[in-house]
Amino acid sequence: MKAVAQSVYGSADVLALRSLPRPVPRPREVLVEVRAAGVDPGVWVNMTGRPYASRVAFGLTRPKVAVRGRALAGVVASVGAEVTTFKPGDEVYGTCGGGSFAEFAVALPRRLAPKPVSLSFVEAAAVPISAVTALAAIRDAGLRSGDVSGRKVMVIGAAGGIGAYAVQLAVAAGASVTGVCGPGKVELVRSLGAADVIDYTTAEVDSLGAVHDVVIDTAGCRPLALLRRAMTPRGNLILAGGGHDAGGLLGGFTRQLRAPFVSPFVSQRVAGLTALERAEDLEALTPMFDEGTLKPVIDRVYPLADAPAAISYLAEGHPTGKIVVAI
Ligand SMILES: NC(=O)c1ccc[n+]([C@@H]2O[C@H](COP(=O)([O-])OP(=O)(O)OC[C@H]3O[C@@H](n4cnc5c(N)ncnc54)[C@H](OP(=O)(O)O)[C@@H]3O)[C@@H](O)[C@H]2O)c1
């Protein structure tokens, strides 16, 4: 099969389109014929081995997994002997550990769900990591239960992969959303339902005052003190990401690590977010796509051979929604 793989860490030119053996599913695995694969900053982290602390998990001197990509949408080709929840021909979406920038990938059933019928494979591949992370942030903010009407939520990186979903999910929950994005994306963020939009090149995130009950930060690596100035005294700051390429051992993840040491000493809650890749979360999102409450925002679609260019584009740091590799 054709796959985009690497032998050493580095920039996108370490990636090459190779012919590799088709993976064989183990008894508890599913073999998926990949139709489309999502591109997200985690792919860049796996490719570069940066921040350097990520190498503890992904391989100290070179990547343990050669094929890049995690998010996928495709058709089940075969299943292992112990798999009862999927069968050949099922259309699925989810994540895999062995690389989705490939014609075939093996995945665990607990990381796959039936694809939303209303989404194409390209659209479905734009969901698994980003929308699941947005859902985790919305849940962590307490916006999935109880009366949230009147609550003000700020999403930083509102036009990005996670942010575009977070805006839509917060609006669907009944919150009033302030989206923070760069120039040229204000209208898009408004179209996703944001009541207010801050173009961060003309105003900072605290420019509306300490009015937000929740701040979900996906981008930009701003200091915690600045983020807290945008929140009410009992506000909830959720650090979903940002600044993974900030350099050093931990990149921008130092803010997430500092959060538990800051939170007990301030009136606001400051918390890092770690989203899990679970079928239950995809199943919770599926009806929202099929009912039209949520829609993927797709920036660019690249053919498999151009996956390195897709990652390079993402690494520029300003995608509008999601980038997808079509296979
Ligand atoms: N916590 C978790 O479990 C989890 C899971 C997945 C990913 N992540 C992390 O979450 C982060 C975001 O992921 P993503 O997929 O949303 O990335 P993305 O698709 O690259 O989006 C980032 C967005 O941030 C905007 N941005 C860039 N600089 C900014 C700034 N200074 N202020 C405000 N916005 C800015 C960018 O566009 P504009 O500047 O043009 O607006 C872009 O739209 C990454 O660091 C990723 O590693 C965390």
Automatic annotation (TrEMBL):
It holds the Pfam family ADH_zinc_N_2. SMART domains: PKS_ER (SM00829). Signal peptide: none annotated. SUPFAM superfamilies: GroES-like, NAD(P)-binding Rossmann-fold domains. It comes from the Bacteria. InterPro entries: ADH-like_N, Chloroplast_QOR, ER, GroES-like_sf, NAD(P)-bd_dom_sf. Residues 10-325 form the Enoyl reductase (ER) domain. This is NADPH:quinone reductase. The lineage of its organism: Bacteria, Bacillati, Actinomycetota, Actinomycetes, Micromonosporales.
